[in-house]
Amino acid sequence: MLEKLLSASRAYYVWLGFLLCLIAGCGLAYWQQLRTGLSITGMSRDVSWGLYISQFTYFVGVAASAVMLVLPAYFHHYKKFKRMIILGEFMAVAAVVMCALFIVVDLGQPQRMLNVMLHPSPNSVMFYDMLVLIGYLALNIVIGWVTLEAERLGVEPPKWIKPLIYLSILWAFSIHTVTAFLYAGIPGRHYWLTAIMAARFLSSAFCSGPAILLLLVFLVRRLTGFEPGKDAVRTLATIIVYAMCVNVFFYALELFTAFYSQIPGHAEPIVFLFAGHDGHLAWVSYWMWAAAVMAFISLALLIPPSSRDNPALLPFALVLLVAATWIDKGLGLLVGGFTPNMYETVTPYMPTAREIIVALGVYAIGALVLSLLWKIALDVKREVGNFSG
Amino acid sequence: MNKSRRSFLKVAGLSVFALTGGLAARAAMPGAAGAGIAPGGYAKGEKALRAGRWAMVIDTRKFAGPEDYEPLAEACRAAHNVPRIPDAQNVKWFWADSYEHCFPDDMNAYPDDKTRARAYPLLCNHCANPPCVRVCPTQATYKTEDGIVAMDYHRCIGCRFCMAGCPYGARSFNFKDPRKFLPSPPPNPDFPTRMIGVVEKCTFCAERLAAGKMPACVEASDGRVLFGDLEDAGSNVRRALAADFSIRRKPSLGTQPGVYYLI
Known about the structure:
The complex is a heterodimer of chains A (389) and B (263).
Chain A: H1 10-36, H2 51-64, H3 67-75, H4 82-106, H5 115-118, H6 125-153, H7 161-184, H8 197-224, H9 230-261, H10 264-275, H11 283-302, H12 305-308, H13 313-338, H14 353-383
Chain B: H1 2-32, E1 54-59, H2 70-80, E2 95-98, H3 99-102, H4 113-117, E3 119-122, H5 131-135, E4 141-143, E5 149-151, H6 161-165, E6 172-173, E7 199-200, H7 206-209, H8 216-219, E8 225-229, H9 236-243, E9 246-247, E10 259-262
Parallel strand pairs in B: 1-10
Antiparallel strand pairs in B: 1-8, 2-3, 4-5, 6-7, 9-10
C-alpha cells in the first residue's frame, strides 16, 4: 500500500516539503541543544521538567484516545465508526512517535537512552512507560495496517487480529495510567500526589484526543471530500462532551480536596496557578484562567444537542476544548507540580523560544507521520469506494 | 537469483556461527577471566571507614548566618569540583538557606529569634527510603550497603525523574558544561568533573570514607557537624541524638532522612 504515496497531488508534496523544511529548521535548534545542553531551555534546578515532558504527557493522551473509536466499534459493534477507525489508529501511531521524541529531546544524554533497556529497573515507572508505549505503537501499526489491507482486498480482517484489537483497547488505558503514575507516585509534589491523577488524565485524553481527530477529519473532508459519516461525527461529539464533563468534574474534585481540607501543600500549587504569588499574577495564571473560560464555553456549546450538531459551531467548540485541555495538561500540570518548589519559594519557568522551536519540530514530525499514514488510508478508502456518500 | 541466494545463505551461516561462537566463548569466560571480582562487586580498602548506616548530625546552634556555612560549602566544592554557576541552572551540593525554606512545615510558629534568624545547611538526606532511587529508570542512582545514596554519572541519561522525585531539592542537573565554570586544572584532580546532561548531588563523600577520611564538610566544621554510624548505639551521632532535641526535613513523607538538625 506504500505505493499510494507515489501518486499524490502537487499540493500534497508541497505540504510534505514544507514539513521537511520545518523539521530541518527546528532540527538546527535541537542540534544546538545537543551541543550546549538543556541550558537553551527555560528549565532550571527547581523546575527541572518543562514544555517537553508536558507535551509528552499530552500526546500520550492523544494516542490513548483512539480507543474511543475502537471500543464502541469492536465491543459494541457500532459499525458507523468503522470508516473513521483507521484514522484514529494512525493518529495514535503519530502521537506515540511524538511522545518518544519528546522524551528523547528532554534527555540530557540522549545517546545513552538505551540504558533504560540495558539496565531495566522494574521499580521505575519510566521503565513501564517505555514498555507500554512501545507495545501500543506496535499494536496500532499492526492492527491499522492489517485491517486496512483487508479493507483494500475486500475481505474480512484475519481472525488473529481480533485478540490484538481487544488487547489494544485495554492497552490504551494502560498507557495513560502509567503516564499518570509518573507523576502521582512522587512524594512531596502536592499537585501531582493525587489518586485521581490517572482518572483525570484519561478523561482529559478521551475528550481532547477525539476532538483533535474530529478537527483533522473536518480538515480532510474539506481538502479531499472524505466523508466520515454524519452519525459517526454525532456519536463522537457526544463521547467528547461526556468525557469533557467528567474531566471538568474531576478538576473540581481536586479543588474541593485542596481548599476544604486547607492543607497548605495541596492548595499552594493551585493558588499559584490561578492567582500567582505575592499579589503578582504569573504568566501561567492568564493561561489557566483562559483555559477555565474556554472549558466552560466549550461545554456550553457542546452540551445542547442543537449547537453540538451545528456544523459551524462544532469545530469552534472543539478548538476551545482542545485549547483548554492543552493548557491544563500541557502547561499547568508541569508548572503547578514544580511551583512552589521544595523550599516553598517560587522559581519562575517560561519556555524559551528555542525550546518552543524544538517542540515545534517534534510537532512537525508528528504531522509528517500523520500525513503519510492518512494519505495511504484515505487512498485505500477511495479505491474501494468507502470514501464519500 | 540463485547465486545471490547462495551468497546470502553463506553470509547468514557465517554470521550465525560467529554469533554462537562468541556466545560460547563468553559463557566459558566467568571460569577463567572473571574469577577475580564478581561483576559489579568491589572490596573495601583496609583504611576504609565502615558503618551500618552513615548519618549526619548538624549542631545548628553553633552556626549563625550563611557565612558560617561557607567554609563547609567551599570544602565540598573543592573536594568534588562543584562549579559556581550564577543562575537558576546552577549546581549545589551543600548550601545554606533560611529556617522557613529549610523546614517549610512550620513546626513552631513562634521559635525564638535566634532560631528563626539562623541559616541552616541543605544537602542530600541520604534517605533510608529514597524516592530518587525508586524512580531512576537506569539504576544510575542507587543505595550502597552503608546507606549512602550514590550516583553513577556514566549511566545517568539525564531524564531528571530523580529531581522531580526528590522532596528536598537536593539534586542538580548539569544544564551547562560544568567544566567551563571550573578553573583548570580543577580543584581536586582526584575526583571526576562531570559532563553536560547528567544529574549530581552530595555523596556523603563516599570516596573519602573509602580512604579513611571524614566527609569534607565535616572536616571543615570544627566538630559542629557530626558524622557516624546510626546503627551503632554508642556512636557519636547516636549519643548526640539521644542528648538533644533534633528534627529532620519533611519526616512525614516516609523517606527517613539521614541528616539530623539539632535545634
